[in-house]
């Protein structure tokens, strides 16, 4: 399994103010023209992005294994297994991250592959 460092970014969404019922009033009086309101706050999770590794006919298997160890924190055994999945099925999800982390991983892999003159392709998509 690939390492999955989920950043714990929490955002709050303030929902519309809701009228309170008479039982919510502490004084027990009829508010007549006035209405008390309460804010409901709901936590929102940040969107997550899958990082995908694509197969090709030229990139050496050991190079792909190295990429998975180096940039995705996999052990050699995990990396070899994921590399074989990509080789056999055409692609595999190698991690799920926030937008910024996924973007960085893709850029690191693409740059490392280009510098070693391998055609390896890495992309991301919203989960
Ligand atoms: N298909 C490549 C080969 O036979 C190995 C490979 C695996 C390439 C995974 C890319 O993402 C990849 N040498």
Which SSEs are present, and which pair or pack?
Layout: E1 11-14, E2 18-19, E3 37-38, E4 41-44, E5 49-54, H1 61-72, H2 76-89, E6 91-97, H3 99-115, E7 121-126
Antiparallel strand pairs: 1-4, 2-3, 5-6, 5-7
Portion of residues in beta strands equals 15-25%
Class from helix and strand fractions: alpha+beta
DSSP summary, beta strand count:
7
- Rg result: 24 Å
Task: List ligands, each type once.
Answer: L-tyrosinamide
Described by strand count, sense and barrel closure, the largest sheet is: 3 strands, antiparallel
- Main sheet strand line-up: 6-5-7
The separation of the N and C termini measures 17 Å
Uncertain stretches of 5 or more adjacent residues:
1-29
